Amino acid sequence: MPETKQEDLKPAEAKTIATLERLRAEARAGGGAKRVEAQHGKGKLTARERIDLLLDEGSFEEMGMLKVGRGGALGDEGEYPGDGVVTGHGTVDGREVFVFSQDFTVIGGSLGEAHSQKICAVMDMAVRSGAPIVGLNDSGGARIQEGVDSLAAYGEIFHRNVRASGVVPQISCVMGPCAGGAVYSPAMTDFTFMVSSNSFMFVTGPDVVKTVTHQDIGFDELGGARVHASKSGVAHFVAENDILCLRDVRKLINYLPSNNRQSAPVLDLRDPDDRADPALDHLVPLTPTQTYDMGIVIHSILDGGEFLEVHADFARNIICGLGRLGGKTIGLVANQSAVLAGALDCDASAKAARFVRFCDDFNIPLVCLVDVPGFMPGPEQEHGGIIRHGAKLLYAFSEATVPRVTVIVRKAYGGAYVVMNSKHIGGDVVYAWPTAEIAVMGPKGAAEIVYRKEIAAAPDPEKVLQDKLEEYRSMFVNPFVAARRGYIDDVIFPRDTRRRLIRAFQVLEEKKTDLPARKHGNIPL
Ligand code: HXC
């Protein structure tokens, strides 16, 4: 078709197009060259540069570009380009994704009525069309000039976060300030990324902390990326800068289905299903108290050894993450023997429970690798609510209807055995390595309780204890008692773990589960 020339247009059309181009140029310019320069000076990209990196080249379709606010209570005109947020959709490796990107160069990316309406519009459309939503947060928070309207505006977003939860994947990137109630939108999404060089999240900032508690604390120490990735567990992923962060978001999206009605995309990494790894036969140390790195098992069994660990620096005694088996995405939960001997504590239980629920929401089958000596003992854990938190993991596994396969690598003691996706709570297939020890408790604790009187009365108590330990081990601490009872399906060679898992998931592909008729259960929060 021949290109329309300016002189072919009627005057009215020409005027409309000129106005449109002026408005578009204003929106694209954001807060102007000076503020863009300041943004770059802080090592941050602009809202549009971020979108360009997140989405496939040229795929971005902007929505609501010309929308502006209706003016603020403090005499503010409210005519800000794009009202401080860029919204729309585009593709990530060919699959549709919705995005909003706050523009800090426009009144600090602060959130007012129109800004929120733009975000809500893409959230609604993401849910309607069944595509993930990614929020790129860089904002001074509630727009002060819009007063209570900006609080209402946050509420509209929070409500949509909840409505979208479990329907489409929601991902937040915190790439600048995120303070006050604003933190609750990222907190309700499925995954939160933080950029270590430039972001912080807190409910109340250092000044308020100083006034209320007389504590001196800096932004990073209070709510920087490292703190949230390792101590609070608010951040699932940390990247050094905007570019790496957006690359990681693309990586995560590639593991996920677009919505809760679909399966995750299949990716053939050309790793044979029957690839055996003889090294696994020698991984578990002979001494029961000696630890090892469960990461070795994970990388050995997954397609191409590729694993995207979630919450890598938080509650490191449990490992959660996404990988592929036979090309299909699986969620993996594993006790990390090398950290706290893999015991379950409050943080580990809550971390894994949320991950299990995410996988179940989005039809991602679960693999559970078990080496757990039990729940962490001590007043700190008891008073911190290990009963409440441990129950979350028990509940999460129990209610999950996706295919669930467990491999007991070594210890599976007590309540932790049951919690870690045992058959008794709906695990579909449970395998054990020959090194598995499935028992009510460890040999020492058990012998000391059951044979206490006998040991105390013996002329050589230490010798009797050792004999009793040996007796208990041979009778109870092995996979065969559980196998005879039908609690495990097979004792497998470690080298064959990958093949057996892939086979089990093939069988479970069409798994159907009836759910009780109810509004929703009441997970112990
Ligand atoms: C209106 C804001 C703003 C806000 C920043 N600006 N935050 N305008 N409402 N909330 C404007 C500034 O006036 C400035 O405008 C521009 O954005 C850039 O801000 P600077 O302060 O120059 O940037 P910087 O030095 O990088 O500091 C960033 C900042 C700081 C740390 C975020 O701006 C700040 O502390 N802002 C207020 C944060 C806050 O208390 N927000 C409310 C949180 S409570 P000019 O024109 O000078 O360039 C909240 C409640 C949510 O959000 C409740 C939900 C239920």
Descriptive report:
- It contains 20 helices and 17 strands.
- The mean pLDDT is 94.
- Helix 4 (113-129) runs parallel beside helix 5 and helix 16 packs across helix 18 (461-476).
- By secondary structure, the protein is α/β, with parallel strands linked by helices.
- It has 2 domains: 34-72 and 79-255, 2-enoyl-CoA Hydratase, Chain A, domain 1; 278-442 and 477-507, 2-enoyl-CoA Hydratase, Chain A, domain 1.
- The strands form 3 sheets. Strands 10, 11, 12, 13, 14, 15, 16 and 17 form an 8-stranded mixed sheet that branches.
- The structure holds hexanoyl-coenzyme A.
- Residues 107-108, 110, 140-145, 151, 154, 177, 179-182 line the site of hexanoyl-coenzyme A.
Strands, total number: 17
Q: Give the name of the CATH superfamily of the largest domain.
A: 2-enoyl-CoA Hydratase, Chain A, domain 1
How many structural domains?
A: 2
Largest sheet composition: 8 strands, mixed
Return the structural class: alpha/beta
Mean pLDDT: 94
Radius of gyration (Å)? 27 Å
CATH class of the largest domain: Alpha Beta
Low-confidence spans: pLDDT under 50, at least 5 residues? none
Strand content: 15-25%
Portion of residues within helices: 25-40%
Which ligands, by name, code or SMILES, are bound?
A: hexanoyl-coenzyme A
- CATH topology descriptor of the largest domain: 2-enoyl-CoA Hydratase, Chain A, domain 1
Shape: elongated
> How large is the count of helical segments?
20
CATH architecture type of the largest domain: Alpha-Beta Complex
